[in-house]
Every structure is written in C-alpha cells, then in structure tokens.
C-alpha cells in the first residue's frame, strides 16, 4: 500500500525544475514525464457503455424517464404498459450513444493520425523511424525540411552554417515570417555525426512545463562546462522546419507538456442559450406536473370518500383513502409524463445535425481556390448562430490576407502609383482589366509583381538620381536574405512581409538584391552588378521604429540609409528638407487615407574620419557587459541625424475579399465587432479604417495608451463623459437572478453619435483587473467599434470572458492562428479560418471556412434560419405535447380520478414517435420565412434573434395557455358531441373506446392543421410528411383495431372494431372539423390583427417580397473608399531584427554563386533594356508544403496569387 501511496503522491507533486539526461531513457523515466502521445478521445471499447450511459443519465430528462420506467413495473401504480416508456427511452439513448460513438471514433482517428506520424530517433547509435507517440523526454531526434517539430526540442545541430535553422511559427503566434534559431557551438560541432550524438550525455536543468511561448530558461551541463539556454535554442512543437535540410534536437517537453498544448486553453462544454433556457423550463414543467398530480391525487381522495365507498360492494379494496390518493399521485406521474417528452431531445439533435449539413453543403461558402468548404465541426450550437451580439475578430489573416503589396510611393515630392486619365486629368480606379507595367526588360523581375503607373518606369529610364537613390536604398537597407533555387529565380527570406514587399519592388524596378555576406551586399543596378561594403546595421526595435545601414559603395563613398516611421524620421531630418517634408506629408496623409502602411526613407553621406571614430566607440559599446543597450542607442541617435529626405513608400496589407461589405452588413444586424490583435496600434487602426470599422464620420475615436492604472481609469472616464455627459457611475448594473446565482449584468447605454475605442495591450492589462474591468466594459460597450492592440492570446480570452460574464449577449470569436485558440474556446461560438496560419484554430473551432466574408452568410442565413426553426420547433412541440397531456387532466374529473387514460395505449406510444414526429422535423429542417437572398438584403431580420423574441419564457407561457385552451376544446367538444348520441342504425355510440378514438383523431388532425399554419415554406417533403403522417395514423389505427391483432394479443389490442364502427359516422367527421377550427381560430385571428396593428420586421419584409414578386437580389458589392488626414504607421515585425546576426561575421545562408545569376561584373547585362500597383511579395516564392507525407496543417508564409474565385 505504501508503494502505491508514494506513487500517487509523486504524481500530484508540482514540478519545480526539470532534469533531463540525453540518451538515458532509464534515468529520465524515473521522473515520470509525459510521453509524446496526445489523447483527445473520451472513451475506449470497455468504458464506452458505462461512461456514456452515466453521462446521458446526468441529463435530467433521461433520469426522469428511467424513474418512470421503474414506476411502470409496479402493478399497483401503473395503468400503462412498460413499453410506452421503454421504447422511446431506448431509442433516445441509442441515437445519442451512436452520435457520441461516431464523434469519439473521429477523435480517435485524429489522435492516431498525429500519434502515428514518423520521426527518426537516435537509439543505440542508429537512427530508427519511430512513431511520435513513442518519443520520450531525453531522446535525440532528427528533423528534415518541411517536417513538423515533434516535441519541444533543444536544438543541437543543423545542416546550415553556424547551426542555424529556419522555422515557421504560424501555429504558435500567428506570425508568418520565418524565424531563426541557433544551436550552441559545443553541440553544433557534432553536426550529423551519429557516434558523437549517441555519446552525448549532457544534462539539462530547465523550467517546468508552462505556456510562455516567448521565454525559456535553463542550463546545459556537458563535460565540465555549463552553458546558458534561452528561447533562441529551443524549437517548439507546432513549428515547421523550413529551408533547412536537417537538424538534431533533444526532447525537453513531450505531448501534453509541450508549450503548444499548454496554450490550447481549457475546452469547455458549450451549450446554447436555448439549452440553458430549456433547463429552467424543464424544472418549471416538473413543477407543473407535480402540481397537476397533487390536484388529481387530492381529487381521488375526495372522490373515494364521497363516491368510492359505494363501489366497495362490487370492488372490495383493502387500502384506505390516503393510500389510494398516494398511489394515484404516482399513477398520474406516469400518465402525464408526456408533458416532458423524451423525444424532444432526440428531435433537437436531429434538427441540429440537419442544419449542420446545410452549412457543410453550402456552395456559396465554398472557397474554390483553396478547395475549402465550410464545415460545422460541432452539431450542437447551430441556433446560437442566430443570436450573436458580439464578434471578436483577429486581424492578420482573418480580416487581412497577410499579403503585403507595394502600392504607391512618393519620391522627391512626386507621388507615383495612381493612374491618370490623359484627357480628363482625373485619377482612374485601378482594375484587373488595366494593363500593368511591362517588366519583361528585367530578366530578374518577379512575375507576381504588378504596378500600373508607367511614369515611374519612365523616371527609372531617364535615370533620375532621386528615383535611383530611392530604389537603391530599398535594395540595401534591409536584413533579407537572397536564395536562388534555379537560375534567374531569386527567393527572398525576409524578417517581415513589409520588408519583403519593398525589396521585391526594388528588384522589379531594376535594383535587384542578389546576395549578401557578413561584409558585403551585392545588388544589380540597372543590369550592372555592384558590391557594397556593409559596415554596420543599426537594427529595428519597437522603441527605435527605424533601421539603418552604413555602406561603402564601389567608388569608396560612405553613406547611411535609413527607413522608418514618419514621425521618427522627421525628427532626425536636416532643416533644409522642410519644404520637401511638407509635400511628402501631404502624400503620407493621402496614403493613410487609403489605409496604407507608410514608411519614410532618408539618407546621409558620412565623413570617413568621423565614421572611423564612431565605429570604434560602437565596437566598445557592443562588447560592454554593462549598459550595452543604452550606450548603443546613444550612438545610433548620434549618427542618425541631419539626414536628407528621399521619399516615402505605401504598402497595402490587403483585406480579404468582401471584408468591408461583410462588416457593413453585420453592423446593420446590430452586431458589434471588436478586433483583438497582436499587431501594433498604427497597423490595427489602418485596417480598422480600411474595412470601415473606424470611419471619419465618427464623432471621436478614443486612444487609451496609458502607463499606469490611474491614467487608464481616467482616460476611460474622460471618454465616457464625452460620449454621455449625464452618465452616472452606479446605475449601469442590474442583478439577474438565475437559479440562486446573482451575476451582474451591464446594461446597454444610449449614446448620441458613433464612437470608436482603441486600447493597447499594456493599458488593457490594467483595464482587465478586477477593480477596473467594469469601467472598461462599460466604456467599450458605449462605442460602435473596439480595437485592442498588442494583446496576448490570454488577454484575448479574458476580453471574451469579460463580455460573457457581464453582458446578457451571445459572443462569437473568429481567428485563423494558434494564438486565437484561447479566444475561440472562450466564446460561445468559435469560428476558425483555414487560411495562412495553419489549422490550429480550425481544430479548436465549432465552425470553419476559408474567408471572413462567409461569416455574414453563416450568421444572417444559416444562423437565423437555424434559430428560427428551432424556436418554431420548440413552440410547436410543447403545444402538441401539452395539448395531448392536458386532455388527460380534464378526463380525470370524469373517470373518478382513477388514472384511466383517455387514449389507447398504442396511440400513446406512437403519438410522438410516428404520428407527429416527421411533420415537425420537416418544418424544423426546411422552413424559411424568407430565402437566403432576402435574408442578406435585410440584415435587420437578424435582430429579433438577439433579443430572444422567437422563444422565451413569455413565448413558453403563451404556448402553455394556447395548449390549455386547445385541450379544453379537444376534450369537451367530442364529449358534448358524443353525449347521449346514437349511430345511424340507432345504436348507442357514447362508449369509452369510441370517445377515445374521436379524441385521438381530433387531436392528430388539429396538431397537423396548426403545423400547417406555422409553416412559412411548403416543400414536397413537408407535404409528404404532413399528409403521410395523417395517412399513417388512419392506417395504423385501422390495423391495430382489427380482429386479427385482437386474437393474437387481446390485452394489447382491446379496441376491436372501434375504428370501422366509429369513423363511418358523418357526425364524427363534423366533430373533427369543428374541433380543429375552434382550436386554430384564435391563432389565426391573433396573427391577423397583430400583423395589421404592430407588424414585426419579418411581417414587413415578407409583405414587401410578396408585393415585389421578384427573385431575391444578389448581394451588392460596393467599393468602399475613404479620405483621411490621419497618419498611418509602418508595421515592422514584432520581433527584434536580424541585424546582429547579419553583421556577426557569419553567413546566414549559403549565398548563391555569381555565375548562376549570370551577373556580369562590368557593363550592362545583355538582356537589360531600360524602356506600378501591387507587389505581391512572397518571401518563399514557392509552395511551402510540397506534396509529401506531411499533413497540410501548417501555414504557407505568404502568397502572391490573386483570389478571383469567390
């Protein structure tokens, strides 16, 4: 026992420090680290049945019916056969179990697919192909190009010079640019020597498993030396190896302990608001059932005392009155159980499944270029799509394509990029039909680059010095690396997509960056190869917001080239540039008005003597142990001043197709959109304006970028006072009591005008603290648009949770990267875009598709229809079952409260399973108030869903009252019609069996007529289901009441001959018609008068559609433009640049030999003939995932193809 107790204690201990010894599985296994196996499934063949039944009986309705089944086997209580309950219960449990089994089988397949991937593991000095699931902590594994990283690894060595590797981290942080990692020299020297790697016995001491993607701390002890380990030495699971032939790594964390899995967030069971309402209503129904049974039990006791004693002579009974009432109570619990229909839940599952298939089959949500259909990954949340109030969206890859295009530029005061009509002098809109600039004169031009302003090429041909200087700067001032895969095919690896787009633009205009070494940069200028000596790189960081290079040209002239954000560069310009700066500023404002990302370029000629002295000081500062960063920053500031302005660039982060139109439509549907992005503030603002989230017409856009809690609070209060001067501090909360809990609900406040809010991650961290979160939420909810910048994945989830907690609204989160997973899991609905950043978001989502624009169809069409159908289904289902059950209640007063059923047992069993199941399913799967085209034309149709107008507690009470009225009609009209009546042949027709059959027939016909009134859209299937169900009722009724079945089983088929003797009487059919008319007449009258006096938005649109008698319109696609005086900001990469690596005296890549480019040392190249809009930059320029045995779950970094298929 002590052994097992010790084992359990060890498992529960929190890991403080991880100890790993390379190539020693026995030592590492003693710590019981997790294996690399991933498990997302819930069951196995042995646990499926008990666990699944346990889960199903946690649903209160299933447990209730099991309890009924137990009651029905007690003869003293039950007046119904056991099969009336066991048949539907077994059916429901079987259908649900089958669905759960299919889902879990799919999870098992997914797990096996990942766990059975192969990787080479070094075991006993040999590389052995092992499954991922068999990899253990401490193993050394070999990865090859384009392979996924198996686990979190310590990089040991690689095929690249200086043991560098290039990885794509889109699955982790959403960034699509390649990143560089470097192994320690001591391990890198082992290379691919298997003997040395097998003999490696280094010990790693590092941090325990955690979810911090940006940091890692540890030490490696090898021999007698200790080496520090940081994040630059680690490859994380979820990354993909790129442009690196091979590398070796030591497994640090495996399986669920990897940083990727630690970041996946907690999966919560999502339920719709209708499900939550249903739980409340079911409790109410149970209370109603108990109340009815108590009334009938009391009635039984009274009846037994007054009238029952007279029957003792004929029916002697031993029990007393109280005990008889007690038994009657339980008997009526059984009889009236249909007030909580068990088939309700299985019908809801079928409806949700059907509506999920509609999403999967929708061709209008299929993206042909990527062959990606929309997919409903869960089948339990469809109707929630019709109630969305808040959308939380990622930016990069979700709203934008993450494809940077060189759009316009300003050079020496002249703007390029617009196409001007020669006759009118007006600027023309650029379309695909226009003829782009012909770059065929340049054999090294990128064929994916398009530019439409021919005047810029003319300026190049005229060899204008400023234009040449402009593109020379773009070709030299960067940290990109060139690689030639085949002759003439240059591929650039850039630190950011912006940088790659600029280098590609220079390339096409004749200034081709060819190669670099640690000391030189080689470019081809107008066909002439020139090699510049690279003397220093003053790299970019988030504070500097600029980068510079210092180079010496072949003639020996020293120059500094700088590019950066306009506000930063302007402060460092020479006073003589003031006039040019004014003109360039006008151009920058124009570019910013179009939502472009701008960058200013400047240069400075340097004195040789001054630079030598500066270089010496730079070297001393770079090797200093203390204040290194501060000293370097001072040196950078010193040399980057009095620069000369050259011009500015304008880059477009292209929006996905239809984003602006989609946002406009969703705004009309009263849906609020919040953008949560890790990008910088200027970039997020630009995209906000580009897609019309932020508009110039807004009264104000508040920027919260404070550095302390007090400042953040004050800025939010100032914003709130400006929006609503009469605002009060404490009157925006209301308590909402739900089952004893009292959460606070933040009310919506009326604001005059439209406002926007932009808040950065630093301020958001303060705003999300418990003492300030309500102020933040209140301020944000008063704004039309909220943009949160520089937010972490955890903050994204916290914002979603905040709105879920305090707003009585349904939320949706949409993203495309692994950094969006937490947000997607936190929201009521998670949508994944299968785009540029891998499949991690899709795998965690509830719905997925390829383009943001499909969101409007998902919500305004499928979501609204699903919600409307589910609400109609519930209202009708409760109506037909309450009506069915209440007839029993009224009958009890006429049968001495004896628990006698008013219907035949066969009818009770088949009523919900056969007679009324298909018509309501047909309505719930095919009904439409208006078709898809009109749903998109009038987004206002979506608003009633947000307000829960179609099904609520009030709607439920109305349904119950309607059922009560109908049940009175269904009981007393047949009762009065058969009381003291005779048949055509003079015989008495007022017997129990005839009355039961007439009541059954009236009920079945009435509920079918009511369904016909509820249906807005009749299809062939609806006709088949409605008329087929009525026909099935009569066929089965006549069949079950035949002599043959009575002879086979007299106790079960006692209504012998009732159908043929009763239904041949005209007065019976008149009774059926009268009952149906009386039941539906109040409904028809109410709907008619209500539609005339106070029509709903649905009534108005349907009336308009009928009046127009035209087909639904095609969705309008308009070009949205804006003009602004605000300034745009250039977005560099989030990470620190590569400058230190470039100038470290080490080759980053094997640069292409000059001969393969066909470069000519002197003179023009033979093919050069000097004779602009979008530069689609692709830093890879080829398919990132060649078709091999690698699942396409990771991201192609950038694409440069036009998406014309939508």
Instruction: Just name the CATH architecture of the domain at 405-654.
Output: 3-Layer(aba) Sandwich
List the strand order in the largest sheet. 14-37-36-35-15-29-34-33-30
Query: How many strands, which pairing sense, and closed or not: the largest β-sheet?
Result: 9 strands, mixed
The CATH class label of the domain at 405-654 is Alpha Beta
Instruction: Report the count of strand segments.
Output: 37
> What share of the residues lie within helices?
40-55%
Subcellular location: Endomembrane system; Membrane
Region (Disordered): 1159-1206
GO molecular function: ATP binding; ATP hydrolysis activity; magnesium ion binding; phosphatidylcholine flippase activity
EC number: 7.6.2.1
Q: Could you please describe the fold and organization of this structure?
A:
With 1206 residues, this protein is an alpha+beta fold. Among the domains are: 38-117; 135-264, Calcium-transporting ATPase, cytoplasmic transduction domain A; 356-398 and 655-728 and 744-860, HAD superfamily/HAD-like (Rossmann fold), CATH 3.40.50; 405-654, Calcium-transporting ATPase, cytoplasmic domain N, CATH 3.40.1110.10. 42% of the residues lie in helices and 17% in strands. The strands form 8 sheets. A 9-stranded mixed sheet has the order 14-37-36-35-15-29-34-33-30, sandwiched between helices. A 9-stranded antiparallel sheet has the order 17-16-28-27-26-25-24-23-22, with helices on both faces. The radius of gyration is 37 Å and the shape is elongated. It comes from Onychostoma macrolepis. Its main location: membrane.
